[in-house]
Structures
1.
Amino acid sequence: MAEARGMWCVPCLASLEILQELCRTEELTCAALGIGRGELTEYEVEYLCGFKKEKGTAYYLVKWKGWPESTNTWEPRRHLHCLGLIKQFQEDQRAFHVQVKAARKVKLNHCRARDQGMAFTEYVVRKSMHRLALKCWEEQLNRKKNHQGKILVENEVDFEPPPLDFHYINQYLPSRGINLTREPLVGCECSDCLVEKCCPEEAGAKFAYNAERKLRIAPGKPIFECNSCCRCGPLCPNRVVQKGTLYDLCIFRTSNGRGWGIKTLQKIKKNRFVMEYVGEVITSEEAERRGRFYDSKGITYLFDLDYVEDEYTVDAARYGNISHFVNHSCDPNLQVYNVFIDSLDTRLPRIALFSTRSIKIGEELTFDYQMKGSGDVSITETSETNGPSKKQRRMECKCGSASCRGYMN
């Protein structure tokens, strides 16, 4: 269901299968439902939900894409050319048996083989539907993001679905009454911004990057990048944050109760820009009101923009980008910096996350919600659902680092 700005959305009451069947009946295509021209005229395996052997022949129960479950059919292995789905089915089968064995050890499962077969069918169908929902969300996120890096979604821990009331945005979204002026009044005329007197020096700051766009200033120092009025081109070394995330990242479900997290799918070198923290810009008074509500729910995503004045706050609870899912750590690999590009309003800096050390492929990305040593920015984390907060009750930290403080705020 489409959402008007400022309004809440509600989930559709019709199931995915019903909507797909309606599309097929009416001969309509819908990318969001996975119904293209091919699905209207051809049969495609959506997932496998059963297995049996008859007279030495292996059969799989097939759920056909765009067709209701009532049309599922048993097909011999030789008819199927979906090796990936067969492998996935076998992995689910092994995972299910591991769960059954674990349950037996604590005497929680005494069901017969027939009951286990029914339980496995239910498990594999639920798992397949869950993967389809995550895949649909992944495609949606990649359609909405405007940066180079791809976004993947992974959950091999539980059946937690995509968040229903989270909307991906690429830049600050001002709440009513807040004006975010993005048009600069003046720009540099440098032919080589790295050696000439450029935007940072005009603002009384140090040039933040070297020739390879690697950060070279200490935490707490502001970053002033060249803006849309500057004569330097897109290859200028002083254009980094504005180019967006360059790395492929994965939203994944953590296994220790910290909710969703972010891991990198590419190696990230030290002092490199990774992502920007964006959300809805609200007043500090509104942040106090929302903070009380978030406290009652044990969640919050409030980030104070207190570089000079504590007038505005970024709330990434409903509107945000991939940084919405970054977890806290007492030994983080990301550091927050205040950035100014088109707007020089010191009340409204952009928030950029840079790597503090070399980060390996598959490593989770984290930052310290208390932001020690990062200047005037002050934030803390509160909950499983990953978010910095204003004033919160003390919450236990689960980062697992050797230097863990025990609490996140």
2.
Amino acid sequence: MWEEVVCKMAAVDLAFEERVSLLYLLWRAEQRRKGRPHRTLVHQVLHKREQFGEFHHLLQDLRLDDGRFQRYHLLSLAQFEELLSCVGASIARLDTNYRRSIPPAERLSICLRFLATGDSFRTIASSFRVGVSTVSQIVPQVATAIWDCLVDNFMAVPSTGDWRSIAEGFQERWNFPLCSGALNGKHVQMKAPPNSGSMFHNYKGTFSIVLLAVVDAGYRFRIIDVGGYGRTSDGGILANLTFGQALRAGTLHLPPDQPLPGGEDRGAQPHVFVADEAFPLRRELMRPFPGHLLPLEKRIFNYRLSRARLVVECAFGILSSQWRLYRRSMELRPEVAEKCVKATCVLHHFLRCLDERGAPAVRGVAPAVVEPLQGLGRVAANNSSREAVLVREKFMAHFSAEGAVSWQPKE
């Protein structure tokens, strides 16, 4: 090597001092190269992933106990395999000349474990014996694949027939006719992104992005939107959503207007969504009457609406209790947090659809019959169209007459 360098230097017209300096620099570079330890692409600890990593060591034992496997992943072994069959092709990666790729099953396991615990990427990386940067890439990639592969089958925009089926569910289980869903928002707490100012700062004094959802009578998410700034109100987020714009324009393909059960004399009424006082009153969007000292009919309406609206609150509670990612502030970029939230919502629907098709027994959910007319505090005033006010009054009269239930006051 040195002889080749000297020959090339001789062929070039260089001063003696320049040749000495160049040879000295080459000699120093060679000495540093020899004294430097050999660097590998993979850390020595990670080389033992297949012997001591959780996926290759612990999870193979958990496969023999479905209960423990489910507590680890929040999916049974059968559900895990079915989900893998849906997303496996999307998350698979090719081997290279330098290293073997992580198989789809292990990539899915890493993502589910993160969603199930909310642990840091460093903790997940240590458990599975992979790099922290590897986990930071796997989680958003797999979360995106879960959403893309499941959304069309489990959370597609409802058709007219789907809206009608949802309304039948609310009538049967919650005694609220012509209800196409319960609407509400949830603040998903996260660490403030750099240079974000007060955009993510909410009224609770924390930083968050907003999950806005429409839920059916079986606690399933039918329409969601994620990523609204925490400082924006639920009503303001709804106004900027495609769903809110379609609701105003009447392009949601809701079923045609029809009379309330037993109230044909009141005329045909629209299918509506039920929401709290944070949302505006519209023809297809019902909110409570404002005020403290309300007449009995208005109090009954507020109670019946609140009873139906509990569905979306319970759905958020089930989501948070199952996926412990929501139990702490997410230390993620907003775009990654959005992908994780969307993945948990579609997984929530996916798991409920794989369970028994009957009415699910949900732990921690308020019972269908609650004490009437309690917990109805003052709500804010709202300017609404005359048509929306008339629709609400028709529902109010229905709940106090032919639509009354046995446990509400009849004075």
